[in-house]
């Protein structure tokens, strides 16, 4: 049986009513964009304001649940990243999961600017867009030949060797072509290119990205990708002088198809008082944002877990990352089991399962629900109710919105995901090696 799930604490219908009462204007028009220079609206990829939203045959909550069913694939991908020894990992990062993220921002590329909606992904350094003339791409494409600032980069540029992971056969002035595989049997070929990238009112001249020419063995997702990792060719690295390696986001609530959040780039306008925890750097995987999760409490009980299941180990890749592309938080199996068992004990209700969720109970027991607190070095995060539970749209079942990492991979990675980050300002301060979290109603 398939049941629709909705996020907790207000029904979808109520969200819609509130929405129409408070937002009479079109939520997707640029007039509703944040006004600061370096601030962009962030949309759910299948939400109303995204060009990738599908005609609504299913409820929004079902869309969210379907997105969550792709998590195991992404967690498997992230786990494969950490368990492999990296050489250079910029744009051509080898295996690339199809499921590349859940949020899009609106940017402009070229002169005059062409509007592109690009997926933001904190666990990726890549930037690429489907380009005109591409065989196998959808029709959401960038047209280089109408941009006066476009240029393709050639083989003898040092960036080319970084992207290809090897030098060109002949170090000449032919275009820097590279192939990238993803999802096992699909690949695309692209030309390393550069053009102006406009982010809100900021312009990044000569931004390097992959311009996709051909796709084989499947299809690339129609949107471009704007990785927010901190590796060598990432947006952060390329905008060092503009943004100094600092950004924050607030992801919109999962309550509504219409909501948007924001991405703030650069140190200006970031929250002044915010609790922080050190960002840890794995030299083998510089793009991933590791933090030190030291324990988890359910209610007042610190869940018993062996410290080595949470410990950061750059050699094995073990530890905890903050990720923008996974829907529900995944813990390694023994950690999840310990959290779940304590949660079940405190809720003291008959437990059933639903889809990916194995700890569901009748909504009438909700008053008993314990809070879940994530303890990081120097910072505790007690999750708001909507970041902990989801419930069926029929209203009868509530589920703990977390799960174990897929058991088909020998994963050592805990992933703090979107649902647990909604309506929080998450600050990535790379120069000061810290990650901050503050409550914020961002939609
Ligand atoms: C630009 O390229 C597209 C596709 O490659 C082509 O159809 C179009 O005519 C070109 N436009 C100009 C101005 O060259
Ligand atoms: C990319 O793949 C195509 C088709 O398989 C091949 O012809 C081409 O040589 C490859 N290019 C690179 C740079 O590996
Ligand atoms: C993480 O926190 C634990 C417990 O406080 C500490 O022992 C460990 O050294 C920390 N790890 C890192 C990498 O900071």
Give a brief rundown of this model.
This protein is α+β, with helices and mostly antiparallel strands and 443 residues long. The chain has helices spanning 12-22, 60-68, 71-83, 158-164, 235-238, 240-243, 333-347, and strands spanning 5-7, 39-44, 103-109, 114-121, 127-135, 151-152, 177-182, 186-199, 202-216, 224-227, 246-250, 260-265, 275-280, 290-291, 293-298, 301-302, 319-322, 329-331, 352-354, 357-362, 372-376, 379-382, 389-392, 397-400, 402-404, 413-416, 424-429, 434-439.
Topology-level CATH name of the largest domain: Cathepsin D, subunit A, domain 1
Shape: globular
Name the CATH homologous superfamily of the largest domain: Acid Proteases
Percent in strands: 25-35%
The value of Rg in angstroms is 21 Å
Strand order of the largest sheet: 3-4-10-5-9-8
Mean pLDDT: 82
Percent helix range = 10-25%
Question: How many individual domains?
Answer: 2
SS element count, helices = 7
CATH class of the largest domain: Mainly Beta
Give descriptors for this structure.
signal, 443 residues, alpha+beta, 28 strands, 7 helices, Cathepsin D, subunit A, domain 1, six-stranded mixed β-barrel
Task: Report on the architecture of this protein.
Belongs to the peptidase A1 family. Keywords: Aspartyl protease, Disulfide bond, Glycoprotein, Hydrolase, Protease, Signal. Residues 103-438 form the Peptidase A1 domain. The active site is at 121, 323. This protein has helices at residues 12-22, 60-68, 71-83, 158-164, 235-238, 240-243, 333-347; strands at residues 5-7, 39-44, 103-109, 114-121, 127-135, 151-152, 177-182, 186-199, 202-216, 224-227, 246-250, 260-265, 275-280, 290-291, 293-298, 301-302, 319-322, 329-331, 352-354, 357-362, 372-376, 379-382, 389-392, 397-400, 402-404, 413-416, 424-429, 434-439. It has 443 residues and is of the alpha+beta class. Helices cover 14% and strands 35% of the residues. A hairpin with a 2-residue loop joins strand 21 (372-376) and strand 22. The chain is globular. Strands 3-4-10-5-9-8 form a six-stranded mixed beta barrel. The chain has two domains: 37-265, Acid Proteases (Cathepsin D, subunit A, domain 1), CATH 2.40.70; 275-439, Cathepsin D, subunit A, domain 1, CATH 2.40.70.10. The site of one 2-acetamido-2-deoxy-beta-D-glucopyranose (NAG) has 5 residues, from loops.
